[in-house]
Amino acid sequence: MLNKSLLGVFFVTFIYLLAIFLKQPLEYVFNLQFLPLSLLSLILGIFFFNIFSLSSDIVEGREFIKKNILQLAIILLGIKISLAQLWRVSIESIFVIIITILLIFLTYILIKKIWPTQKDLSKLLAIGTSICGVTAILASSSILKSKDQDVAVAVLVVVLWGSLAVFTYPFFVELFFLTDMAKGIFLGVSIHDTSQVLAAAMVHNDLHPNQKTLEIATITKIIRNLFLLALIPILIVFNKSSKNKNKSKSVFVKIFNSIPLFVIGFILFVTFRSIMDIYFFNNEKWMQFLVMLEEIISILFGLALTALGASIDLRKIFNQGYAALLIGMTFSFVSLVSVTFLIFILGLNVL
């Protein structure tokens, strides 16, 4: 698999290096005070993979980086976070996540009544918007016995609105929120896919260097991903077509398979960091290792964001009917508004 994907890995790496090379000249030409490298990587990825017709090997390499390199970066990011920080963000964000999920599903019930012909697609879009984007859509589609066309359209629509959030929300949070907690929770809850949350947090970090917002956004999204553990059995219980003789076994298997391995790896690295800090908190070599690791994480995220941009097929997205785009926009808007209000109501924006 990796040997076959090497050409694509090199190609994505070339685009990322090109972004690094072009960053300063573009800042000068367009009279920009600062151009985020993460944003430029995304744009170049979109440009190259939508303009040129590329081989299947290059596409495989792109997917390898988008999935595996991103997950590795998230796991390694766990070593920069303590268990105390994980617990604090969990307490602060859990209520926002639950209420937002409930509001999106109430919106789904309303759309189902107004637009009954789109109820299956609406259900997938509600799941993708509220839980964890593409992963949640794919995990739930097998239980719901969704049509392949509905799954494909739901994935494309979630990618579209989540990608627009990547380009806009890093600027939005600076206008509306004051604290790192508010900014991180907003990015972690209101954006759909894990890769999109990390992309937006990286763009924000480039614009306003502050690792705290990135770390809080990552923790919040990890917690949100874990809601798949509740979603799978709920769908199995309420979906009549899933009843069968091996029901209990299938529930167990599906719940186990729904846990992303990078989530487990992230939590393990958080635990490892907390243990190491007990014994080596002021150790110079340990501090140097963390600084070096931060540089590695930054490069891995840069490659992953380039691959994310390269996976956005503009032609397929804009070929979708207005119904799917409108429903996806509605769910995204409900998420945006509910998270914003909850952050203010819960006092998370107070310095």
What does this molecule look like?
It contains 15 helices and no strands. The chain has helices spanning 2-29, 37-51, 56-77, 83-114, 119-144, 148-176, 180-190, 194-207, 211-225, 228-238, 247-257, 261-280, 284-310, 314-318, 322-345. Helix 3 (56-77) runs parallel beside helix 12 (261-280). It has one domain: Na+/H+ antiporter like fold (Up-down Bundle), CATH 1.20.1530. With 351 residues, it is mainly alpha-helical.
Largest sheet: none
Which percent range describes the beta-strand content?
Answer: under 5%
- The first-level CATH class is given as Mainly Alpha
What is the number of beta strands? 0
Low-confidence parts: 241-246
Structural class: mainly alpha
Give the rounded overall mean pLDDT. 87
- What is the molecular shape? globular
From the alpha-carbon coordinates, what is the Rg to the nearest angstrom? 20 Å
Which topology does CATH recognise? Na+/H+ antiporter like fold
Task: Classify the helix fraction into a percent range.
Answer: over 70%
Tally of contiguous helical segments: 15
- List the domain count as a whole number: 1
Q: Tell me the span between the first and last alpha carbons.
A: 49 Å
CATH arch. level architecture: Up-down Bundle
N to C succession of SSEs: HHHHHHHHHHHHHHH
Provide keyphrases for this structure.
351 residues, Na+/H+ antiporter like fold, 83% helix, mainly alpha, single chain
Helices and strands, with pairings:
Blueprint: H1 2-29, H2 37-51, H3 56-77, H4 83-114, H5 119-144, H6 148-176, H7 180-190, H8 194-207, H9 211-225, H10 228-238, H11 247-257, H12 261-280, H13 284-310, H14 314-318, H15 322-345
